[in-house]
Amino acid sequence: MTRIANIDYYLSLRYKILLLPEEDGWGAIIPEMPGCVGGGDTIEEALEMLEDAKRGWLLRSLEHGDVIAEPADYAAS
What we know:
This protein has 2 helices and 5 strands, in the order βαβββαβ. The chain has helices spanning 7-12, 43-64; strands at 2-3, 18-22, 25-29, 37-40, 68-69.
């Protein structure tokens, strides 16, 4: 399901996050937000960077009027 809402709405949703071990630390991505990535020396740093990237990704999408997907229901998979 998709809908246009404000930034607070999308920030309140629980998107799936994938953590990826890398040679120099950790990467983190949100599959429903193409190009939204974070990285750091630790998992905590990667998640902090991802949170910043998520906010920026959502703001740009809302400014451009893009449709933003809501989180998939991974419990049903």
